[in-house]
């Protein structure tokens, strides 16, 4: 493993092992693997420097060199003008 793994809790280690083996995992899959608090385990992975991202309902490890997809254009703001009757 990496030196980042030394800072992890037991549940974060379980989540990391599952993500490394399968590539992606849902919160339910993490619970089945024995993680009682999946959100905290994933947050601990992010704090330790692991590139974990959420795609839909699953979480996955990504390559840190992977290009970031572009953000969608912002929704234009519309100014409301009162109509005179």
Please give a quick description of this structure.
The chain is built from three helices and three strands, in the order H-E-H-H-E-E. With 85 residues, the chain is of the alpha+beta class.
Helix content: 25-40%
For the biggest sheet, the summary is: 3 strands, antiparallel
Number of strands: 3
- How confident overall, as mean pLDDT? 85
Alpha-carbon distance between the two ends: 72 Å
Rg calculated over all Cα atoms:
19 Å
The outline comes out as elongated
Question: Which spans of ≥5 residues are poorly predicted at pLDDT below 50?
Answer: none
| Helix and strand element order | HEHHEE
Strand content: 5-15%
CATH overall fold name of the domain at 3-61: Arc Repressor Mutant, subunit A
Question: Topology of this protein?
Answer:
Layout: H1 10-22, E1 24-26, H2 27-32, H3 38-47, E2 52-55, E3 58-61
Antiparallel strand pairs: 1-3, 2-3
Helix pairs in contact: 1-3
Walkthrough of the structure:
With 85 residues, the protein is of the alpha+beta class. The protein has a domain at 3-61: Arc Repressor Mutant, subunit A (Orthogonal Bundle). It contains 3 helices and 3 strands, in the order H-E-H-H-E-E. The radius of gyration is 19 Å and the shape is elongated. The model has no long low-confidence stretch (mean pLDDT 85).
């Amino acid at each position: 493993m990496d030196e980042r793994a030394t800072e992890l809790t037991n549940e974060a280690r379980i989540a990391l092992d599952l993500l490394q083996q399968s590539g992606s995992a849902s919160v339910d899959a993490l619970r089945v693997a024995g993680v009682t608090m999946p959100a905290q385990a994933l947050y601990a992975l992010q704090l330790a420097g692991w590139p974990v991202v959420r795609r839909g309902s699953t979480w996955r490890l990504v390559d840190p060199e992977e290009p970031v997809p572009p953000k969608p254009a912002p929704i234009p703001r519309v100014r409301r003008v009162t109509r005179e009757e």
